[in-house]
Amino acid sequence: MPARHVTDGGLETDLIFLRGFDLPEFASFPLLDTDEGRAALRDYYLAYADIAVRAGAPLLLETPTWRANPDHAALLGYDDAALDRVNRESVDFLSAVAAERADELVGWEVGGMLGPRGDGYASAGPVDPDAAADYHRPQLASFAAAGASRATVLTLTEVGEAIGIARAAADVGLPAGIGFTVETDGRLPDGTSLASAIEQVDAAAPPAYYLVNCAHPSHVLRGLDEGAWRERVGGLRVNASTMSHAELDEAETLDDGDPVQLAADQQPLLDAFGNLEVLGGCCGTDARHVAAMWGVG
Questions:
Q1: Which of 116, 184, 209, 274 pairs as cysteine with 234 (C-beta 3.0–4.6 A)?
Q2: What sequence ranges are listed for the domain Hcy-binding (predicted)?
């Protein structure tokens, strides 16, 4: 099995609920344009560097750019040129953060993070893969130009967009991790099983690996069909809360669960996915949860 990388937790929920930031559009990338924001991001990511040092594991820092695409960024005053700049700067920023602990880390890399064009919790219907490739290619090209080692997309809700992103990542020469989210029944929001989603994307444009994110382990387990598809899952980033996406969307307080219990709840997934090489958290998780997952809490 490849060396498993420590990655971060629920960046946006950490920033909002634990650090008091207002994030319009649930976007953290604008923080790169303020001194206060950069200081908070540096502090956030260094906590995961510390976990990687204590765990003796390589570190994967992933850029705070899940919402840095044209539809969301336009609402925040960022045009195409500004988006290219901030996506590139995000890679440089995290490289500098990792360099602060480079002498203690067993290895590190910086990956570019992207998200769906639309909502990360609900499907708006089928997406044309070619249109998705055209839409996401500029962000991926920015990551590649800045020297990112890979790209990861989180919280995809249907297959067409996943195929498009896998194609666009291949176009710019970046290995891609394709991340799907599931509802409480373990299926994608449109009812597709994880097994079917992975098989469909692999048939059209196989990425480097897949991830499952933004769901509690108990939700993922309900959709855990047998099959070779499990070997294609290389990343896991679970939620702290057992609430549904609809409930989380309405929540005004943070449900951060119990870090030790979350690590225990996740263990069956670690057993089921034998090729995991990226392990971190998603909504509601912070450094406490990821440290527990790695046994260094």
A1: 209
A2: 1-297
d(CA 265, CA 221): 10
227 is annotated as contributing to ligand binding:
no
Backbone angles phi, psi at 151, to 5 degrees: -130, 145
Given a cut of 70, is residue 3 above it in pLDDT?
no
Domain coverage including residue 241: 5-293
Mention every residue, 6+ apart, whose C-beta is less than 8 A from residue 87: 29, 63, 65, 68, 112, 139, 142, 143, 146
The CATH number of the domain holding residue 144 is: 3.20.20.330
- Provide the pLDDT for residue 76: 97
Q: Are 29 and 68 in contact (CB under 8 A)?
A: yes
Closest to 266 in 3D by CA, of 9, 2, 35: 9
Residue 23, both tokens? 């994030």
283 is in an annotated binding site: yes
pLDDT for position 1? 38
